[in-house]
Every structure is written in structure tokens, then in C-alpha cells.
Amino acid sequence: MSGQTFKGRTALITGSTSGIGAAIAEKLAASGANIILNGFGDADAIEAQRAELEQRYGVKAAFVAADLTKGAEATKLVHDAERAIAPVDILVNNAGIQHVAPVAEFPPEKWEALIAICLSSAFYTSAAALPHMKRQDWGRIINIASAQGKVASAYKSAYNAAKHGVIGFTKSVALEYAESGVTANCICPGYVNTPLVQGQVAGQAKAHNMSEEDVIRNVILSVQPNKRFVEPEEIGDMAVYLASDSARSITGAAISVDGAWTAW
Asked: Which residues make beta-bridge pairs with 230?
């Protein structure tokens, strides 16, 4: 899509200082959107990312911090984004964390934090952004769910619950705003090639005395039939499409980008 596709629009992407969120931010900036970055990381690295988006794509970019475990801060993030650049036209709820443990041993504080960041923050940011979207009869909410929002895995009860919840929440928003120019959709990635996942590959290889190639194919991607990682840029391209007018009739969808994981 051309660099002018979203000229004059402002996109807020939570968890966009690395990985999937950073790729989405770059793809939207390349399509002309002003960008609000949000997430954790080294302050100098975040500033370099912000400055590069402005310089490379000729858009405005700002960074706004928020503790998404707190509903009030998730709400404030949207209002701070408006003060930094403009009201949010495109909202991408991408921030997430993971914790793996049996249900009976799952630390309650980990459950609460994971549900807050992966599910509840999407409610708070959406509720804050939707009035502006409805007033202008145009808006896009794109929630990054997961293949594990459609199928479950053992030891990931909180993540499974949160991502299933994100899909249900997104459908509700789509129904409520179906007669407006606002759409709400989910992207459901499989395993994505991020630094976090690559670190897991190295750790698994060492722990099991396996090659990294065997870990990728036979351990991590055992559930992903195409046997390759999704690249972050693929999720970015899907987000750009869902935000475009070409996708104006796509709403309430949970679109799999998972190498046929959920086709089993």
C-alpha cells in the first residue's frame, strides 16, 4: 500500500518497542500513519526507534509510557496519546506477557497481571478510543490475540483464557459498532520469530542437548504444520490491511496467521 494510505491518521500500538508491536508500528508508519509507541525498554533505544520512524517515513511519532496492569493507566494512555499527537484513529492492542505453570500451582499475582495486560487493557483502551472513532464515523481496533485464543495448551491457562477473551471482546465491539465506520478484528498469530522466542530456542537446545534446528522443528513448531516461524512483518502487513478501507467489511473476525496450527 502507498505511503499515503493513512496520511492524517494516528495509530496507537501497545507493546510496540520490540517484536510484533514494533513491526506493526513500522508498517503503519510506512503507510503514512502517525505513531504512538508504548512499551518497555531502554530509553535511548526507544528514542532511536521513535526518531527513525519520523525521519524514514515523514510522520509524527511519540512515545507514551503506561502500566497496563492498571485500568486507569490504560485509559490515560489513550488520552495522553491525543495530547502527544492527535486522537487515536487506529488502536492496536498488542501488549502481552506469558507465564507457564500448572493451574494448581499458578501464582495468583501472575494470573492477575497476565489477564490485566493481555485482556483487560484492551477493554480500557478501546472504551477510551471508541467515542472519537464513532464521532468521525471511522476507526480501527486491531487486537493481537493468538492461535491460543482458538485452541489451548497445557500450562498456559491464564494466556489461553486471556486470548480467548480477547476474541470474544472483539466480537462484541464489532457488533456494537457494525453500522458505523468502525471495525474491530483480531489477528491470531502462531509462533512468531521474535528475540524472545529465539532466546527460548537457545535455552531449549542447551537444556535438551539438541540442535537449534531440531528444537525449532520438533519442539517449538511441533504444532505449526508449515514448520516455520511467522515473521513479525507478516503481522504488520495484516494489520495494515485490516486498517485499510479495503477491509471495511471485515469486522468481528479472528484471522489466523499460524501456518495451519488451528487447522488440525
From this structure: 192
